[in-house]
Design a protein that fits this description.
InterPro entries: PI-PLC_domain, PLC-like_Pdiesterase_TIM-brl, PLipase_C_PInositol-sp_X_dom. The protein has 313 residues and is an alpha/beta fold. Helices cover 32% and strands 15% of the residues. The radius of gyration is 19 Å and the shape is globular.
Length: 313
């Protein structure tokens, strides 16, 4: 007997039951990716964070340690899309002394190898091949956008985004549903965490997270956020991700010789997924973001929330 194939979530939105097609997108449960480009971190780049290790950028061992504790995803953005992820946390950076004045990268501890425009073109191609899948791209942080170049860089990047995605962009004045997006042929939402003047771009989407490496603390803090009243017609992110401390306690983690962030995440994610299933029965969730989104049943767990009793018109 042939082995049973895993269910594909490449086009899961188009396969949702008809009664969910007119639900505001803010009320759907959407799998999201935290630090989406961290799989691409460049071991040869300078260290951006943590501050305590910046001065050690020239030392390969220091960069290796940073990368070991900064990688939160292990699949490309296209494979994350194929796996069913629909929200992407994209942290933008400009390299100092780059000869190209408008070339940008992503970052998390280190810079990525691949530039922003190349990745966004890949996302645009994927969106074109899956017109019924709605994507949310959240651009933030903008490291290295110094005052003398910030306006030029923001203008270049936002113009590139609007030109690239064009008619696919869902405007911020809309209250999107699956059906309304399908009818208009639009399937990309871009959230831009900085001042901009394009009607096609959305403002910052709140991202709630536990700011801890302890799963119980993460659960407790997320409960506090989720149980507060929130605007009825807006996106929000519930981040299941673990966060390294910013003080000297970070050394307790990054100096472990036989451990890394991926291993810690794999130990904690099953518990966090059980928690989000229980929590979603009590309070609404919208975008749920995580590390290692292609592993341990993360995507199917979040998608399944859409067919539970919590989703109401």
């Amino acid at each position: 007997m042939p082995a049973k194939k895993d269910k594909s979530y490449c086009d899961w939105m188009s396969q949702l039951p008809p009664e969910l097609h007119d639900i505001p997108f803010f009320k759907l449960a959407i799998p999201g990716s935290h630090d989406s480009m961290s799989y691409d971190l460049d071991i040869n780049s300078s260290i951006i964070e943590p501050d305590r290790l910046k001065r050690l950028s020239r030392i390969y061992c220091a960069r290796k340690i940073v990368r070991k504790w900064a990688v939160t995803q292990d699949e490309t953005i296209t494979k994350q899309l194929d796996a069913g992820v629909r929200y992407f946390d994209l942290r933008i950076a400009r390299k100092a002394h780059d000869p190209d004045p408008t070339r940008l990268y992503f970052h998390h501890g280190l810079y990525t190898r691949t530039d922003v425009e190349t990745v966004l073109k890949d996302v645009n191609d994927w969106a074109g091949g899956h017109p019924k899948e709605i994507l949310v791209l959240a651009l933030s942080h903008f490291h290295g956008f110094d005052k003398n170049v910030a306006e030029q860089l923001h203008r270049h990047l936002t113009s590139f985004i609007v030109t690239l995605f064009g008619a696919k962009l869902i405007h911020k004045r809309d209250i999107p549903t699956l059906k309304s997006c399908w009818d208009k042929g639009r399937n990309v939402i871009v959230s831009y965490d900085s001042r901009q003047h394009f009607n096609e771009l959305w403002s910052k989407i709140p991202y709630y997270y536990g700011n801890s490496m302890n799963t119980r603390d993460v659960e407790s803090k997320l409960c506090q956020f989720l149980e507060k009243p929130s605007p009825a017609q807006s996106f929000f992110v519930c981040g299941l991700n673990l966060t390294l401390p910013e003080n000297a306690r970070i050394l307790l983690y990054i100096l472990r010789p036989c451990d890394n962030l991926v291993k810690v995440i794999r130990r904690s994610l099953p518990r966090l997924l059980r928690w989000v299933e229980q929590q979603a029965a009590k309070t609404p969730v919208n975008i749920v973001a995580s590390d290692l989104v292609t592993r341990d049943g993360f995507v199917p767990t979040i998608i399944k929330l859409n067919t539970s009793k919590r989703v109401k018109p």
